[in-house]
Amino acid sequence: MIPWLEGSEPFPPLEGALSDPNGLLCAGGDLSPKRLLDAYQHGIFPWYSRGEPILWWSPDPRMVLDPGEFRVSRSLRRSLRAGRWQVTLDRDFPAVIRACAEAPRSGQDGTWIVRDIQHAYWQLAQLGFAHSVETWLDGELVGGLYGLAIGRMFYGESMFSRVTDASKVAAAHLARFLEGEGYGMIDCQMSTPHLASLGAREIPRAVFMARLRALVAVPWQPGRWPTNGASQAWN
Questions:
Q1: Which of 61, 71, 123, 175 is deepest in the core (most CB within 10 A)?
Q2: Considering its fold, how many domains does the chain have in total?
């Protein structure tokens, strides 16, 4: 059994998270900005499907990516240099999260980005905590990703791609932008071969939490990212 959150009840200690399924910590609560920001600052995130209660997770180990260690393959570098992409920040958050929800996922029936999740993260975007990266081709939105920024910590949530390389292009520009802004870590949450191919790796939850606490403590001001902050030419 896992704890059930009532009202403003705090999250239980991470040490109580299940090992199977990996990281399931508790259920209940709500998706208010206050609750979500508290969760992320404590290494916890929501993940559940339609018809389920809100489930909160903190897996061990944790998949992370240092912005400066993003792996650009030879083919991706050629694609980045081709000059065919336009990449923007915070230009159309609702379209990005909606596209992520609609994107088909191998081995998944439906989406965890349910309507309540979309609404909750749009609220965080309006408050300057959630951000999107958009990849455009001939004026059409073809890929992107979204996540949260607290201090100098970025939490990646989901990405989508409608044409080859579109989400990777968004991720590459995000990593370069974050590195330039002094962000120390991207939380990728769960391990996947795709994330590993981009340079992400697993670290123990205790190590993740120590780094997270230091990064979220950096003084900062939430707000919209510069729309053209990721559109520089790729060398």
A1: 175
A2: 2
